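Q: Can I see a sequence and its folded structure?
A: Here is a first one.
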Amino acid sequence: MFVATPESWHLVNGHTDSIRQTIVEKLYSHPVMRAAVLAEMDILKLEMGYDHAPVLERMHIDHVLTAWLRLRDAEIQFTHCLSGENVSAAAAQFRQDFLESAQTRFLRASESLEKIRRLARNTPAMQINIAHDGGKQVNIQSDAPACGKK
Protein backbone atom coordinates (compact mmCIF):
# COMPACT_ATOMS: atom_id res chain seq x y z
CA MET A 1 0.00 0.00 0.00
CA PHE A 2 2.78 2.43 0.89
CA VAL A 3 4.67 1.70 -2.32
CA ALA A 4 1.59 2.54 -4.35
CA THR A 5 0.81 5.68 -2.34
CA PRO A 6 4.05 7.15 -0.95
CA GLU A 7 2.22 10.30 0.11
CA SER A 8 0.57 8.20 2.85
CA TRP A 9 3.89 7.32 4.53
CA HIS A 10 3.54 10.19 6.94
CA LEU A 11 0.46 8.52 8.47
CA VAL A 12 2.62 5.76 9.93
CA ASN A 13 6.07 7.31 9.91
CA GLY A 14 5.28 10.92 10.79
CA HIS A 15 7.90 11.19 13.52
CA THR A 16 9.45 14.35 12.13
CA ASP A 17 6.20 16.30 12.28
CA SER A 18 5.43 15.07 15.80
CA ILE A 19 8.94 15.94 16.97
CA ARG A 20 8.61 19.46 15.58
CA GLN A 21 5.13 19.78 17.09
CA THR A 22 6.55 18.81 20.50
CA ILE A 23 9.32 21.39 20.20
CA VAL A 24 6.84 24.11 19.19
CA GLU A 25 4.55 23.23 22.11
CA LYS A 26 7.52 23.43 24.49
CA LEU A 27 8.64 26.79 23.15
CA TYR A 28 5.30 28.55 22.89
CA SER A 29 2.40 28.22 25.28
CA HIS A 30 0.17 30.66 23.40
CA PRO A 31 -1.77 29.02 20.52
CA VAL A 32 -1.33 32.06 18.26
CA MET A 33 2.46 31.90 18.61
CA ARG A 34 2.39 28.16 17.92
CA ALA A 35 0.34 28.73 14.79
CA ALA A 36 2.69 31.50 13.65
CA VAL A 37 5.79 29.31 14.05
CA LEU A 38 4.13 26.37 12.30
CA ALA A 39 3.10 28.69 9.46
CA GLU A 40 6.65 30.03 9.26
CA MET A 41 7.94 26.46 8.97
CA ASP A 42 5.45 25.75 6.20
CA ILE A 43 6.67 28.84 4.34
CA LEU A 44 10.32 27.82 4.80
CA LYS A 45 9.46 24.32 3.58
CA LEU A 46 7.90 25.73 0.41
CA GLU A 47 10.79 28.15 -0.14
CA MET A 48 13.22 25.23 0.11
CA GLY A 49 11.29 23.42 -2.62
CA TYR A 50 10.03 20.56 -0.47
CA ASP A 51 7.02 19.68 -2.65
CA HIS A 52 9.10 19.10 -5.78
CA ALA A 53 12.25 17.72 -4.17
CA PRO A 54 13.41 14.10 -4.42
CA VAL A 55 12.97 11.90 -1.35
CA LEU A 56 16.51 12.29 0.00
CA GLU A 57 16.32 16.05 -0.34
CA ARG A 58 12.93 16.14 1.45
CA MET A 59 14.43 14.16 4.32
CA HIS A 60 17.20 16.72 4.65
CA ILE A 61 14.78 19.65 4.42
CA ASP A 62 12.87 18.07 7.31
CA HIS A 63 16.13 17.75 9.23
CA VAL A 64 17.07 21.39 8.57
CA LEU A 65 13.67 22.55 9.85
CA THR A 66 13.97 20.44 13.00
CA ALA A 67 17.50 21.73 13.61
CA TRP A 68 16.23 25.27 13.05
CA LEU A 69 13.57 24.79 15.72
CA ARG A 70 16.10 23.34 18.16
CA LEU A 71 18.41 26.28 17.50
CA ARG A 72 15.51 28.62 18.21
CA ASP A 73 14.87 26.76 21.48
CA ALA A 74 18.54 27.06 22.46
CA GLU A 75 18.53 30.78 21.64
CA ILE A 76 15.46 31.33 23.82
CA GLN A 77 16.92 29.35 26.72
CA PHE A 78 20.26 31.16 26.47
CA THR A 79 18.55 34.56 26.41
CA HIS A 80 16.41 33.69 29.45
CA CYS A 81 19.47 32.43 31.29
CA LEU A 82 21.47 35.60 30.65
CA SER A 83 18.59 37.91 31.48
CA GLY A 84 17.99 36.22 34.85
CA GLU A 85 19.49 37.36 38.09
CA ASN A 86 21.78 35.15 40.17
CA VAL A 87 22.78 32.93 37.26
CA SER A 88 25.75 30.76 38.09
CA ALA A 89 28.72 30.64 35.78
CA ALA A 90 28.17 26.91 35.33
CA ALA A 91 24.53 27.44 34.24
CA ALA A 92 25.53 30.18 31.81
CA GLN A 93 28.30 27.98 30.38
CA PHE A 94 25.90 25.05 29.99
CA ARG A 95 23.42 27.20 28.05
CA GLN A 96 26.19 28.64 25.89
CA ASP A 97 27.49 25.14 25.06
CA PHE A 98 23.93 24.01 24.33
CA LEU A 99 23.48 26.96 21.97
CA GLU A 100 26.78 26.31 20.19
CA SER A 101 25.84 22.65 19.76
CA ALA A 102 22.47 23.61 18.25
CA GLN A 103 24.18 26.08 15.92
CA THR A 104 26.60 23.38 14.79
CA ARG A 105 23.78 20.90 14.14
CA PHE A 106 21.84 23.49 12.14
CA LEU A 107 24.90 24.42 10.09
CA ARG A 108 25.71 20.76 9.37
CA ALA A 109 22.12 20.05 8.34
CA SER A 110 22.14 23.08 6.03
CA GLU A 111 25.49 22.10 4.52
CA SER A 112 24.31 18.52 3.98
CA LEU A 113 21.21 19.73 2.15
CA GLU A 114 23.34 21.96 -0.06
CA LYS A 115 25.78 19.11 -0.80
CA ILE A 116 22.92 16.84 -1.83
CA ARG A 117 21.53 19.53 -4.12
CA ARG A 118 24.96 20.19 -5.61
CA LEU A 119 25.53 16.48 -6.25
CA ALA A 120 22.13 16.17 -7.89
CA ARG A 121 22.99 19.06 -10.23
CA ASN A 122 26.35 17.51 -11.13
CA THR A 123 24.91 14.09 -11.89
CA PRO A 124 24.33 13.64 -15.60
CA ALA A 125 20.65 13.62 -16.43
CA MET A 126 21.08 11.23 -19.33
CA GLN A 127 23.40 8.42 -20.30
CA ILE A 128 23.29 6.58 -23.61
CA ASN A 129 25.17 3.32 -24.10
CA ILE A 130 25.84 2.40 -27.72
CA ALA A 131 27.21 -1.03 -28.59
CA HIS A 132 29.29 -1.16 -31.77
CA ASP A 133 30.12 -4.20 -33.84
CA GLY A 134 33.04 -6.08 -32.37
CA GLY A 135 31.92 -5.63 -28.75
CA LYS A 136 33.09 -2.04 -28.38
CA GLN A 137 30.77 0.14 -26.26
CA VAL A 138 30.52 3.93 -26.27
CA ASN A 139 29.01 5.77 -23.29
CA ILE A 140 27.65 9.26 -23.82
CA GLN A 141 26.62 11.41 -20.87
CA SER A 142 24.86 14.75 -21.02
CA ASP A 143 22.94 17.16 -18.86
CA ALA A 144 19.27 17.31 -19.77
CA PRO A 145 19.23 20.97 -20.93
CA ALA A 146 22.17 20.36 -23.29
CA CYS A 147 20.48 17.42 -25.03
CA GLY A 148 19.77 18.06 -28.67
CA LYS A 149 22.28 20.91 -28.92
CA LYS A 150 25.13 20.64 -31.41
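Q: Show me another, different protein.
A: A second, unrelated one:
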Amino acid sequence: MRSVAIVGVGLIGGSFGLALRKAGFQGSILGVSSARSVAEGVESGCIDRGATLEEAAAAADLIFLSQPISGILETIRLLNPIVNPNALVTDAGSAKQAIVEEARRSLTRCEFLGGHPMAGKESRGASAADADLFRGRPWVLTSESDHPVARVFRKWIVLFGARELIMDAATHDRLVAWGSHLPQLASTALAAAVGRNASQASQVAGPGLFDMTRLAMSSWDLWRDILDTNRAAVSEALDGYIAELQRLREDLSGTFSRGTEFARGLRERS
Protein backbone atom coordinates (compact mmCIF):
# COMPACT_ATOMS: atom_id res chain seq x y z
CA MET A 1 0.00 0.00 0.00
CA ARG A 2 1.76 3.12 -1.24
CA SER A 3 -0.91 5.81 -1.28
CA VAL A 4 -3.91 6.61 0.92
CA ALA A 5 -6.68 9.13 0.29
CA ILE A 6 -8.67 10.45 3.24
CA VAL A 7 -11.98 11.92 2.11
CA GLY A 8 -13.16 14.11 4.97
CA VAL A 9 -10.18 15.44 6.92
CA GLY A 10 -11.83 15.93 10.30
CA LEU A 11 -11.42 14.28 13.68
CA ILE A 12 -11.72 10.68 12.47
CA GLY A 13 -10.03 11.16 9.10
CA GLY A 14 -7.25 13.22 10.64
CA SER A 15 -6.74 10.68 13.42
CA PHE A 16 -6.55 7.93 10.80
CA GLY A 17 -3.75 9.80 9.04
CA LEU A 18 -1.86 10.39 12.29
CA ALA A 19 -2.33 6.77 13.34
CA LEU A 20 -0.91 5.60 10.00
CA ARG A 21 2.17 7.77 10.45
CA LYS A 22 2.69 6.70 14.06
CA ALA A 23 2.40 3.05 13.02
CA GLY A 24 5.12 3.54 10.39
CA PHE A 25 3.30 4.15 7.11
CA GLN A 26 5.76 5.78 4.69
CA GLY A 27 3.52 6.33 1.69
CA SER A 28 1.61 9.36 0.49
CA ILE A 29 -1.49 10.55 2.36
CA LEU A 30 -3.79 12.77 0.31
CA GLY A 31 -6.67 14.75 1.79
CA VAL A 32 -9.95 15.53 0.04
CA SER A 33 -11.86 18.10 2.05
CA SER A 34 -12.59 21.80 2.35
CA ALA A 35 -9.69 24.22 1.98
CA ARG A 36 -9.80 24.95 5.71
CA SER A 37 -9.78 21.28 6.69
CA VAL A 38 -6.95 20.52 4.28
CA ALA A 39 -4.89 23.37 5.75
CA GLU A 40 -5.54 22.09 9.29
CA GLY A 41 -4.68 18.57 8.20
CA VAL A 42 -1.38 19.56 6.63
CA GLU A 43 -0.46 21.71 9.65
CA SER A 44 -1.18 18.91 12.12
CA GLY A 45 0.55 16.25 9.99
CA CYS A 46 -2.60 14.24 9.24
CA ILE A 47 -2.10 14.50 5.47
CA ASP A 48 0.71 15.45 3.12
CA ARG A 49 -1.36 17.65 0.83
CA GLY A 50 -4.82 18.29 -0.49
CA ALA A 51 -6.19 16.80 -3.72
CA THR A 52 -9.37 16.70 -5.74
CA LEU A 53 -11.52 13.60 -5.45
CA GLU A 54 -10.63 12.69 -9.04
CA GLU A 55 -6.89 12.93 -8.39
CA ALA A 56 -7.05 11.06 -5.09
CA ALA A 57 -9.33 8.29 -6.37
CA ALA A 58 -7.10 7.61 -9.35
CA ALA A 59 -3.89 7.53 -7.27
CA ALA A 60 -4.83 5.86 -3.99
CA ASP A 61 -4.58 2.21 -3.07
CA LEU A 62 -6.84 2.83 -0.08
CA ILE A 63 -9.67 5.38 0.02
CA PHE A 64 -10.92 6.14 3.54
CA LEU A 65 -14.31 7.89 3.65
CA SER A 66 -14.71 9.76 6.93
CA GLN A 67 -17.41 12.30 6.16
CA PRO A 68 -20.89 12.50 7.70
CA ILE A 69 -23.00 9.63 6.37
CA SER A 70 -24.74 11.76 3.73
CA GLY A 71 -21.31 12.76 2.40
CA ILE A 72 -20.10 9.15 2.38
CA LEU A 73 -23.15 8.08 0.38
CA GLU A 74 -22.65 10.90 -2.13
CA THR A 75 -18.95 10.13 -2.55
CA ILE A 76 -19.65 6.44 -3.14
CA ARG A 77 -22.01 7.44 -5.97
CA LEU A 78 -19.23 9.48 -7.58
CA LEU A 79 -16.30 7.09 -7.23
CA ASN A 80 -16.94 4.28 -9.70
CA PRO A 81 -15.86 6.03 -12.95
CA ILE A 82 -12.72 7.57 -11.39
CA VAL A 83 -11.45 5.00 -8.90
CA ASN A 84 -8.28 2.94 -9.24
CA PRO A 85 -9.71 -0.55 -10.01
CA ASN A 86 -7.20 -2.19 -7.66
CA ALA A 87 -8.12 0.06 -4.75
CA LEU A 88 -9.99 -0.69 -1.56
CA VAL A 89 -12.67 1.77 -0.48
CA THR A 90 -13.59 1.73 3.21
CA ASP A 91 -15.44 4.09 5.48
CA ALA A 92 -15.97 5.20 9.07
CA GLY A 93 -19.74 5.71 9.01
CA SER A 94 -21.65 5.15 12.23
CA ALA A 95 -24.56 3.33 10.54
CA LYS A 96 -23.62 0.64 8.09
CA GLN A 97 -26.62 -0.80 6.22
CA ALA A 98 -27.32 2.24 4.04
CA ILE A 99 -23.64 2.63 3.19
CA VAL A 100 -23.01 -1.04 2.39
CA GLU A 101 -26.14 -1.19 0.22
CA GLU A 102 -25.14 1.95 -1.69
CA ALA A 103 -21.63 0.60 -2.24
CA ARG A 104 -23.07 -2.67 -3.54
CA ARG A 105 -25.13 -0.72 -6.08
CA SER A 106 -22.58 1.92 -7.09
CA LEU A 107 -19.07 0.48 -6.74
CA THR A 108 -18.54 -2.19 -9.38
CA ARG A 109 -14.93 -1.45 -10.41
CA CYS A 110 -13.22 -1.86 -7.04
CA GLU A 111 -13.56 -3.50 -3.63
CA PHE A 112 -15.57 -1.98 -0.79
CA LEU A 113 -15.25 -2.91 2.88
CA GLY A 114 -17.62 -1.26 5.34
CA GLY A 115 -16.01 -0.11 8.56
CA HIS A 116 -16.68 1.77 11.77
CA PRO A 117 -13.94 2.64 14.26
CA MET A 118 -15.77 2.94 17.59
CA ALA A 119 -13.93 6.03 18.75
CA GLY A 120 -14.46 9.75 18.90
CA LYS A 121 -14.86 12.81 21.09
CA GLU A 122 -16.92 15.98 21.14
CA SER A 123 -14.25 18.09 19.43
CA ARG A 124 -14.31 18.31 15.66
CA GLY A 125 -11.75 18.99 12.95
CA ALA A 126 -8.25 17.88 12.08
CA SER A 127 -6.81 20.11 14.78
CA ALA A 128 -8.43 17.76 17.34
CA ALA A 129 -7.05 14.60 15.67
CA ASP A 130 -5.21 12.10 17.85
CA ALA A 131 -2.90 9.31 16.68
CA ASP A 132 -4.06 7.17 19.62
CA LEU A 133 -7.79 7.77 19.17
CA PHE A 134 -8.38 4.17 18.04
CA ARG A 135 -6.14 2.47 20.61
CA GLY A 136 -8.05 -0.10 22.64
CA ARG A 137 -11.26 0.56 20.70
CA PRO A 138 -13.25 -1.86 18.50
CA TRP A 139 -12.97 -1.34 14.75
CA VAL A 140 -15.98 -2.99 13.11
CA LEU A 141 -15.60 -4.42 9.60
CA THR A 142 -18.61 -5.74 7.74
CA SER A 143 -16.79 -8.72 6.19
CA GLU A 144 -13.52 -10.64 6.27
CA SER A 145 -12.40 -9.35 2.89
CA ASP A 146 -9.41 -11.12 1.40
CA HIS A 147 -8.70 -8.35 -1.10
CA PRO A 148 -4.91 -7.65 -1.17
CA VAL A 149 -5.31 -4.08 0.09
CA ALA A 150 -7.86 -5.21 2.68
CA ARG A 151 -5.33 -7.63 4.13
CA VAL A 152 -2.84 -4.78 4.51
CA PHE A 153 -5.48 -2.41 5.89
CA ARG A 154 -6.48 -4.93 8.54
CA LYS A 155 -2.85 -5.20 9.64
CA TRP A 156 -2.71 -1.41 10.07
CA ILE A 157 -5.80 -1.56 12.26
CA VAL A 158 -3.96 -3.93 14.58
CA LEU A 159 -0.92 -1.63 14.58
CA PHE A 160 -3.17 1.24 15.63
CA GLY A 161 -3.94 -0.75 18.78
CA ALA A 162 -7.58 -1.20 17.74
CA ARG A 163 -9.52 -4.48 18.02
CA GLU A 164 -10.90 -5.82 14.75
CA LEU A 165 -14.50 -6.97 15.03
CA ILE A 166 -16.25 -8.64 12.08
CA MET A 167 -19.98 -7.99 12.07
CA ASP A 168 -22.62 -7.79 9.36
CA ALA A 169 -24.16 -4.38 8.74
CA ALA A 170 -27.60 -5.18 10.15
CA THR A 171 -26.19 -6.54 13.41
CA HIS A 172 -23.87 -3.55 13.72
CA ASP A 173 -26.70 -1.07 13.30
CA ARG A 174 -28.90 -2.82 15.87
CA LEU A 175 -26.13 -2.98 18.46
CA VAL A 176 -24.86 0.58 18.01
CA ALA A 177 -28.42 1.82 18.32
CA TRP A 178 -28.28 0.56 21.93
CA GLY A 179 -24.60 1.16 22.68
CA SER A 180 -24.03 4.51 20.97
CA HIS A 181 -27.11 6.15 19.47
CA LEU A 182 -29.39 5.66 22.49
CA PRO A 183 -26.83 7.17 24.92
CA GLN A 184 -26.57 10.20 22.61
CA LEU A 185 -30.33 10.70 22.62
CA ALA A 186 -30.61 10.10 26.36
CA SER A 187 -27.90 12.68 27.03
CA THR A 188 -29.55 15.19 24.71
CA ALA A 189 -32.97 14.64 26.28
CA LEU A 190 -31.58 15.02 29.79
CA ALA A 191 -29.79 18.26 28.90
CA ALA A 192 -32.95 19.61 27.27
CA ALA A 193 -35.16 18.61 30.23
CA VAL A 194 -32.87 20.22 32.78
CA GLY A 195 -32.43 23.32 30.64
CA ARG A 196 -36.16 23.84 30.17
CA ASN A 197 -37.32 23.02 33.67
CA ALA A 198 -34.45 23.77 36.06
CA SER A 199 -31.84 25.79 34.22
CA GLN A 200 -30.19 26.83 37.51
CA ALA A 201 -29.65 23.20 38.54
CA SER A 202 -26.06 23.41 37.32
CA GLN A 203 -25.30 25.72 40.26
CA VAL A 204 -25.82 22.86 42.69
CA ALA A 205 -24.99 19.88 40.44
CA GLY A 206 -22.15 17.50 41.08
CA PRO A 207 -20.08 15.94 38.28
CA GLY A 208 -22.83 13.42 37.51
CA LEU A 209 -24.95 15.92 35.58
CA PHE A 210 -22.01 17.03 33.46
CA ASP A 211 -20.95 13.42 32.81
CA MET A 212 -24.48 12.52 31.76
CA THR A 213 -24.94 15.52 29.44
CA ARG A 214 -21.47 15.54 27.86
CA LEU A 215 -22.66 13.75 24.73
CA ALA A 216 -25.31 16.42 24.17
CA MET A 217 -22.49 18.71 22.99
CA SER A 218 -21.85 16.52 19.94
CA SER A 219 -22.46 17.91 16.47
CA TRP A 220 -26.06 17.75 15.26
CA ASP A 221 -24.82 17.65 11.63
CA LEU A 222 -23.26 14.25 12.29
CA TRP A 223 -26.07 12.87 14.40
CA ARG A 224 -28.81 13.92 11.98
CA ASP A 225 -27.35 11.60 9.34
CA ILE A 226 -26.79 8.76 11.82
CA LEU A 227 -30.33 8.84 13.14
CA ASP A 228 -31.81 9.27 9.66
CA THR A 229 -30.09 6.11 8.38
CA ASN A 230 -30.73 3.95 11.46
CA ARG A 231 -34.30 4.93 12.31
CA ALA A 232 -35.80 1.49 12.95
CA ALA A 233 -33.06 0.26 15.28
CA VAL A 234 -32.92 3.56 17.18
CA SER A 235 -36.71 3.55 17.57
CA GLU A 236 -36.55 0.04 19.05
CA ALA A 237 -33.82 1.13 21.49
CA LEU A 238 -35.82 4.21 22.49
CA ASP A 239 -38.88 2.05 23.14
CA GLY A 240 -36.82 -0.14 25.46
CA TYR A 241 -35.35 2.84 27.30
CA ILE A 242 -38.73 4.57 27.69
CA ALA A 243 -40.16 1.33 29.10
CA GLU A 244 -37.42 1.31 31.74
CA LEU A 245 -38.11 4.95 32.61
CA GLN A 246 -41.79 4.12 32.99
CA ARG A 247 -40.89 1.25 35.32
CA LEU A 248 -38.80 3.68 37.38
CA ARG A 249 -41.79 6.03 37.57
CA GLU A 250 -43.93 3.15 38.83
CA ASP A 251 -41.28 2.25 41.40
CA LEU A 252 -41.14 5.88 42.50
CA SER A 253 -44.85 5.88 43.21
CA GLY A 254 -44.22 2.82 45.37
CA THR A 255 -41.35 4.58 47.22
CA PHE A 256 -38.79 2.14 45.80
CA SER A 257 -39.68 -0.84 47.92
CA ARG A 258 -36.87 -3.27 48.73
CA GLY A 259 -38.16 -5.66 46.10
CA THR A 260 -37.93 -3.37 43.05
CA GLU A 261 -35.49 -3.99 40.23
CA PHE A 262 -34.07 -0.52 40.81
CA ALA A 263 -33.34 -1.27 44.46
CA ARG A 264 -31.79 -4.63 43.58
CA GLY A 265 -29.63 -2.97 40.93
CA LEU A 266 -28.35 -0.41 43.41
CA ARG A 267 -27.51 -3.10 45.95
CA GLU A 268 -25.67 -5.16 43.33
CA ARG A 269 -23.54 -2.18 42.34
CA SER A 270 -22.71 -1.10 45.88
